[in-house]
Amino acid sequence: MTDASDTSGALDGVFVLDLTRILAGPTATQMLGDLGATVIKVENPKTGGDDTRGWGPHYARNEDGSASDLSAYFMSSNRNKRSVSVDIATPEGQDIIRRLAARADIVVENFKPGGLVKYGLDHATLRAAHPGLVYCSISGFGQTGPNHDKPGYDLMAQGFGGIMSITGEPDGAPTKVGVGIADVMCGMYATIGILSALRHRDKTGIGQHVEVALIDTQMAWLVNEGLNYLTSGTLPERRGNAHPNIVPYDSFEVADGHFLLAVGNDAQFARFCDVLDLSHLAADPDYRTNLARIKNRLALMEHIKPPLKQWTKAAILDALRAVKVPAGPINTIKEALTSDQAIARGAVQKVAASGIEGGHLHLLGNPLKFSATPVKYNRPPPRFGQDTDEVFETWLGGVSER
After folding, report:
1. How many domains does the chain have?
2. Which H/E stretch holds residue 352?
3. Number of neighbours of residue 385 by Cβ within 10 angstroms
4. Is 183 considered catalytic here?
5. Pick from 56, 55, 52: nearest CA to 21
6. What is the pLDDT of residue 33?
7. Can you give the CATH number for the domain in which 86 is found?
8. CA distances (Å), 293 to each of 275, 280, 285, in order?
9. Which of 117, 213, 356, 367 is the one with CA 20 to 30 A from 322?
10. What pLDDT, on a 0 to 100 scale, did the predictor assign at position 399?
11. Do 282 and 269 meet the contact criterion of CB atoms below 8 Å apart?
């Protein structure tokens, strides 16, 4: 058996030049770093680096107890990277980026479409000089289309792309997902595109431009609700935690809180009814099949909600698990990240960090599990510009100005 400590990452030897900030781009480049790539994150000295370094209120503390420039937000998507301070608005900075790009396999940027042309750092210019370069551009609305010049933020993507219209309680306001999911999923799609282009480059020697937009990816992951509309022409509704295609599949109130129920088929429904002493419902033509339950959703709720309120969370979960009906708790983030399952799966990683109070940081783990090239946490999220001299000496032979 291979010792994981002696293995290289799947992307060992791949050089990534990271010109991104905020969340979507950094999510993609962090994933590449987790897989073993060398990631050089370029940060603007005029602004103090990535905007999210200042997005508090929570920061890692320096050894003296003062707040560092490592906000919780920044740390969520910037491990396994080196930070260099370069002003790309100057000729000297542009020269540095071109020289780093000459060493790179991959460049990732999330400037506004066309924003790097004036610096000579756009995909057409860099790929003309380096035909094997994989160049990924991430933007809000894409490089084309009537909205291509509009700025992209996660909230706007969730609103424009339709997901907010189906998120929230039926009688409440449209609601965004609790984290920047449009940004995160855009970063994930970008990673898939980059790795596909890298595979093509390795086969042919030819790089390409990978272009990803928050709006495009958000609409792509409307999945079943998007297809429900395209198939029927009927607009999906906000249903809170309920499912448009499966009933009962929702959160339900019990005596001491709420729990989740996910009845996936008719046999499970029959066993669920047995637990509640409602076996007659499973034989009723109005509820016997999932299609019938969808049509009679509201009436079914009137049958099952009152008896559920007589149970405690622990009791109903035990009873349903005993008969193999899918049910579960609604954990707080603390409960989720400290659960036995989270611990067993490495959901939280303790990463050494010099200069930080306690000498380490707690970060969310990468969920990918590899048998031969495991994810490693070699580098904590970097302090602003901390690796500038090392990068210049190692990859550029030293530079006098930046």
Report:
1. 2
2. strand 348-352
3. 21
4. yes
5. 52
6. 98
7. 3.40.50.10540
8. 18, 14, 9
9. 367
10. 66
11. yes
Let me know if residue 213 belongs to a domain: yes
Dihedral in degrees, nearest 10, Cα atoms 393, 398, 400, 402 = -60
Contacts of 167 (CB under 8 A, 6+ apart): 158, 174, 175, 176, 177, 238
Determine the Cα–Cα distance for residues 390 and 351; give it in Å rounded to an integer. 21
Task: Kindly calculate the radius of gyration of the chain based on its CA atoms and give it in whole angstroms.
Answer: 25
Q: Pick the last residue of a domain from 295, 325, 355.
A: 325
Question: Residue 81: what are its φ and ψ, rounded to 5°?
Answer: -135, 155
* Beta-bridge partner residues of 262: 249
Q: Residue 122 carries which side chain, given as an amino acid letter? A: D
Classify residue 285: in a domain, yes or no: yes
**Does some domain include residue 334?**
no
87, 122, 154, 183: the active-site residue: 183
How many other CB atoms are found less than 10 A from the CB of residue 361? 21
Q: Give per-10-residue mean pLDDT for the chain (402 aa).
A: 59 98 98 98 97 97 97 98 98 97 98 97 97 98 95 94 97 96 98 98 98 98 97 97 97 98 98 98 98 98 98 98 98 98 98 97 98 96 98 86 50
70 and 192 co-located in one domain = yes
Which alpha helices (DSSP H) does 130-169 contain, by range? 154-160
- Token pair of 132, please? 């094997």
Q: Which two tokens stand for residue 129?
A: 């000089």
Decide which of 325, 348, 371 is a domain's last residue: 325
Distance CA 158, CA 48 (A): 29
Q: Are residues 93 and 51 in the same domain?
A: yes
Q: Look at residue 6 in the predicted model and tell me its pLDDT.
A: 52
What backbone torsions phi and psi does residue 296 show, to the nearest 5 degrees?
-115, 35
Q: Is-contact 338 346, C-beta < 8 A?
A: no
Give exposure, 131-151, as e/b (b: 16+ Cβ within 10 Å): eebbbbbbbbbbeeeeebebe
Q: Are residues 52 and 190 in the same domain?
A: yes
Q: How many residues does the chain have?
A: 402
Q: How far apart are CA 187 and CA 138, in angstroms?
A: 8
In a domain, 245, yes or no: no
User: Domain span at residue 290?
Assistant: 264-325
Residue 18 · residue 98 · CB < 8 Å: no
